[in-house]
């Protein structure tokens, strides 16, 4: 039960709304609704409810609600993949990005090369640090951001470069602007408030300005790099693939689409999530010497102390893979994912969710549900291993209950990229350092 106008908004923990929703699910069950300002939100918490919505009824749940004023301004009226309606342009843009980011043969090799470069850089920074303890957050963040620039633009940048500084500023600003309870949330409901809350609105206008400046710099950078391409050398940059799509698809894809995809779907979605996961990893591993010892034992046996860790080692390293899965579960860095919306009235676990309602998936709850997981707040890679120390199969209940990247048509576009980078970092750190 909420208050007039604001509904349940002030009852929800501003920084961690997913924790409030866990408490409410205890009384209200796995499918319940809350009122946040003018919006009725449905929260799904249990595996059965989430699986039914995302996978079994995935097609009707693959829409995104478009009622958020702040996102609408920043994404040019929802032109990016993550905020777009599930239309043919969304499908095409996601396909183009997948094809370039992914994942088949040469694509996978390229991700490995980029990630290995990033790992080397990070190990260099760690190795050159003389203090016994230091804060690795910035080094991790900058390195992850540079993997994204490698992928999108084919090169890395110094933290002093103008484009790099602007990317960081934009990415950090967006984290607040996209949060459901973050600063400026009131503008989503009463957009006219922007005429009175000028400071808050200015933050959003500044982000739009920054986005436009970044796009101009991206275009400039990529045309300079164009000139460096030799003869029939393959252009592997994501931004080039997007530009090709612009030409091929005629008027359906516009330059504004590309700007929204490059800045929001690639830079924003690809940086904070991965760097946050890695920071949590360092924190966790420093408190679990037993896990670290087992990782080191596996890396020593499979890779040795000199050779660079490769993706082909992965199949022989079940403990490292289990640690990666456990990290994704434990950290759940996208706790509520991105909102979904059914196009028609849809029944989930016997409850009807009306067409047009916003639906949030509580991934954090799914991954910490005390009725399913044993010791959900402990870090235990063993939950993903069988009795013989092998990785449990994808059909094992623990693997099925793990959905850090979502599932169904709206599954995360960067899943493979993120997992690859994190695997290589976990293994390489274990090979070289004691944390
Ligand atoms: C640890 C890293 C990451 C995590 C945990 C993560 C998690 C998620 C989640 C939970 C969703 C929402 C799924 C849903 O709608 O139910 C999502 C969507 C998305 N992610 Fe990620 N993500 C990560 C990394 C990345 C990277 C590296 C990229 C890009 C390079 C990326 C791009 C996207 C995009 C574009 C979407 C929207 C897809 C769509 O609406 O069709 N993510 N991600």
Structural description of this entry:
The mean pLDDT is 87. The chain has a single domain, classed as Cytochrome p450, CATH 1.10.630. Strand 3 and strand 4 form a beta hairpin. The protein is globular and about 60 Å long. 41% of the residues are buried. It is mainly alpha-helical and 435 residues long. The strands form two sheets. The chain has a three-stranded mixed β-sheet, covered by helices on one side. Helices cover 54% and strands 5% of the residues. Bound molecules: protoporphyrin IX containing FE (HEM). Protoporphyrin IX containing FE binds next to helix 11 and helix 16. Its cofactor is heme. InterPro entries: Cyt_P450, Cyt_P450_CS, Cyt_P450_E_grp-I, Cyt_P450_sf. It holds the Pfam family p450.
Number of domains: 1
* Poorly predicted spans: none
Beta fraction of the residues? 5-15%
Molecular shape: globular
Known CATH architecture: Orthogonal Bundle
Secondary structure tally, helices: 16
Number of strands: 5
Fill in the keyword field for this structure.
16 helices; three-stranded mixed β-sheet; globular; Cytochrome p450; binds protoporphyrin IX containing FE; single chain; 5 strands; 435 residues; mainly alpha
Compact overview of the structure:
With 435 residues, this protein is mainly α. It has 16 helices and 5 strands.
Which SSEs are present, and which pair or pack?
Blueprint: H1 17-28, E1 31-36, E2 39-44, H2 47-56, H3 69-74, H4 88-101, H5 105-127, H6 137-153, H7 162-177, H8 185-189, H9 198-228, H10 238-248, H11 255-286, H12 289-302, H13 318-331, E3 346-348, E4 351-353, E5 358-361, H14 363-368, H15 397-400, H16 415-432
Parallel strand pairs: 2-5
Antiparallel strand pairs: 1-2, 3-4
């Amino acid at each position: 039960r909420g208050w007039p106008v604001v509904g349940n908004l002030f009852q929800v923990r501003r920084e961690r709304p997913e924790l409030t929703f866990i408490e409410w699910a205890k009384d209200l069950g796995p499918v319940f609704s809350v009122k946040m300002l003018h919006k009725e939100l449905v929260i799904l918490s249990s595996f059965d409810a989430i699986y039914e919505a995302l996978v079994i009824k995935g097609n009707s749940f693959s829409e995104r609600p478009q009622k958020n004023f702040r996102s609408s301004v920043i994404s040019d009226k929802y032109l990016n993949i993550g905020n777009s309606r599930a239309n043919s342009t969304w499908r095409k843009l996601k396909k183009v990005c997948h094809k370039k980011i992914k994942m088949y043969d040469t694509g996978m090799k390229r991700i490995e090369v980029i990630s290995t470069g990033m790992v080397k850089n990070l190990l260099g920074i760690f190795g050159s640090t003389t203090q016994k303890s230091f804060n690795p957050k910035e080094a991790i963040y900058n390195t992850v951001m540079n993997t994204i620039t490698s992928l999108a633009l084919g090169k890395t940048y110094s933290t002093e470069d103008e484009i790099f500084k602007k990317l960081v500023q934009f990415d950090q600003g967006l984290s607040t602007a996209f949060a459901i309870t973050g600063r400026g949330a009131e503008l989503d409901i009463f957009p006219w408030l922007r005429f009175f809350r000028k400071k808050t609105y200015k933050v959003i206008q500044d982000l739009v300005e920054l986005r436009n400046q970044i796009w101009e710099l991206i275009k400039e950078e990529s045309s300079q790099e164009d000139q460096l391409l030799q003869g029939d050398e393959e252009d592997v940059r994501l931004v080039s693939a997007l530009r090709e799509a612009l030409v091929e698809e005629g008027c359906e894809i516009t330059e504004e689409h590309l700007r929204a995809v490059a800045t929001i779907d690639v830079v924003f979605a690809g940086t904070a999530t991965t760097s946050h996961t890695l920071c949590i990893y360092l924190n966790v591993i420093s408190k679990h010497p037993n896990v670290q010892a087992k990782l080191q034992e596996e890396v020593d046996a499979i890779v040795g102390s000199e050779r660079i860790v490769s993706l082909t080692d992965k199949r022989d390293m079940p403990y490292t893979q289990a640690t990666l899965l456990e990290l994704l579960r434990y950290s759940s860095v996208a706790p509520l994912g991105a909102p979904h919306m059914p196009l028609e009235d849809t029944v989930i676990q016997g409850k009807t969710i009306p067409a047009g309602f916003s639906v949030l998936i509580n991934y954090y709850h799914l991954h910490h549900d005390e009725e399913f997981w044993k010791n959900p707040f402990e870090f235990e890679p063993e939950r993903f291993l069988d009795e013989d120390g092998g990785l449990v199969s994808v059909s094992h209940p623990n693997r099925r209950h793990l959905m850090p990247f979502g599932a169904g048509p709206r599954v995360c576009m960067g899943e493979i990229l993120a997992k690859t980078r994190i695997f290589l970092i976990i293994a390489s750190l274990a090979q070289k350092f004691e944390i």
